[in-house]
Specification:
This protein is of the alpha/beta class and 144 residues long. It is 29% helix and 26% strand. β4, α2 and β5 form a beta-alpha-beta unit. The structure holds zinc ion (ZN).
Length: 144
Amino acid sequence: MSEPRIVVCPHCHSPNRVPAERLADSGSCGKCSSPLFRGEPLELDATSFDKHIGRSDIPVLVDFWAPWCGPCRAMAPAFAEAARQLEPEFRLSKVNTEEEQQLAARFGIRSIPTLALFRNGREVARQAGAMDAASLMRWVRSLV
Ligand SMILES: [Zn+2]
């Protein structure tokens, strides 16, 4: 038997304990019954960001972006494709730096898009600039 992993619900942001071998079964949240993985990037604000980064046992990849940024918008389909393929191994999320300026300042985001991988509450890697889906997945998988 493997240790249960904490999966933070993408809907109500409650932590759920899921046996590691059942992560791929796409279970639902014990509190709100929403699917724990939706195969799409999750928009985070300052409050939900801390719940996911602070509690998740699943590494969280964050795309720091803004609506006015052309390369960010161009990368969005690649990031969505990566979400479909990388969940439930990773949680893919997005932070709108225009709305969440304090988060962007806290992490010293100087250019967008910036991708950052968080594991056990800490940032473990960062990459500035847009990537296609294949490069993005190769980069993320090389980090764990
Ligand atoms: Zn929930």
